[in-house]
């Protein structure tokens, strides 16, 4: 029960990493506001500690309303996990600017906005943990992922800067840089490429959403109360 009494907002929570984080946080005592764009995708959930919030993270007003709803209903917000993201690959010269703008709207600008909104509440509490989901390609780069890697690199820089600014308010800001995680997003590259990529993983297996969820649990809990501004790579020793 590492998160007993804590309140968390998790974006992109309907599947993959987000879903795994929701489940692990609730197991550890948290009240979780689970975000998704698609109305009704949490309709089969009966756990009263999971509260659905349906909104698009690129909608500024919807983001503000979500944060204010949590504040009104719970009185505080202890953890924000910026997990929602999109990935669209293209080689240099084939990168469509409209797609690049879409990637940055979701992966960067929405993260920045929610970080700012949550920080306002956390400053008054003088406590909080913000966790951004980055990527190893934002750290190391990867062929065919110019826009996506640039967006995740921006998340890394944002995390480090926000950590410095918010440290005096006892707000921790960290990021997790997953490697090759077995999600629908990663599987979209095709079975052949998935098999090829396995050869680049030292542990010879894809990561699981639960691997990332456990790192989120650590960063959200008081076990990490002196850790901020860090980019934690969870990749099973991957070479890219």
User: What is the C-alpha radius of gyration, as a whole number of Å?
Assistant: 17 Å
CATH architecture: 3-Layer(aba) Sandwich
Order of helices and strands: EHEEHEHEHHEHHHE
Structural class: alpha/beta
Task: Estimate what percentage of residues fall within beta strands.
Answer: 15-25%
Can you walk me through this structure?
- By secondary structure, this protein is α/β, with parallel strands linked by helices.
- Strand 4, helix 3 and strand 5 form a beta-alpha-beta unit.
- The chain has a seven-stranded parallel β-sheet with strand order 3-2-1-4-5-6-7, sandwiched between helices.
- The radius of gyration is 17 Å and the shape is globular.
- The protein has a single domain (7-234), classed as NAD(P)-binding Rossmann-like Domain (Rossmann fold).
- It contains eight helices and seven strands; from the N terminus they run βαββαβαβααβαααβ.
- Helix 2 (60-74) packs parallel to helix 3 and helix 3 (97-125) packs parallel to helix 5.
Give descriptors for this structure.
single chain; 240 residues; alpha/beta; Rossmann fold; 7-stranded parallel beta sheet; globular
Compose a concise summary of this entry.
With 240 residues, this protein is α/β, with parallel strands linked by helices. Helices cover 44% and strands 15% of the residues.
């Amino acid at each position: 029960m590492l998160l007993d009494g804590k309140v968390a907002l998790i974006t992109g929570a309907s599947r993959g990493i987000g879903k795994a984080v929701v489940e692990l946080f609730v197991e550890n005592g948290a009240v979780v506001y689970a975000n998704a764009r698609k109305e009704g995708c949490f309709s089969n959930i009966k756990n009263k500690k999971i509260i659905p919030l349906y909104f698009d993270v690129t909608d500024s007003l919807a983001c503000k309303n979500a944060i204010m709803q949590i504040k009104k209903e719970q009185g505080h917000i202890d953890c924000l996990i910026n997990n929602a993201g999109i990935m669209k690959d293209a080689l240099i010269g084939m990168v469509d600017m409209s797609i690049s703008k879409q990637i940055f709207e979701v992966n960067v600008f929405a993260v920045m906005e929610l970080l700012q909104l949550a920080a306002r509440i956390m400053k008054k509490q003088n406590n909080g943990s913000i966790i951004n989901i980055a990527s190893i390609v934002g750290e190391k780069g990867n062929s065919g992922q110019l826009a996506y890697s640039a967006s995740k690199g921006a998340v890394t820089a944002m995390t480090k800067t926000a950590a410095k600014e918010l440290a005096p308010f006892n707000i921790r800001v960290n990021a997790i840089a997953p490697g090759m995680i077995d999600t629908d997003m990663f599987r979209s590259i095709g079975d052949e490429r998935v098999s090829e990529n396995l050869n680049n993983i030292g542990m010879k297996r894809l990561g699981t959403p639960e691997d990332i969820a456990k790192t989120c649990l650590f960063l959200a809990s008081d076990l990490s109360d002196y850790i901020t501004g860090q980019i934690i790579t969870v990749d099973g020793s991957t070479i890219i």
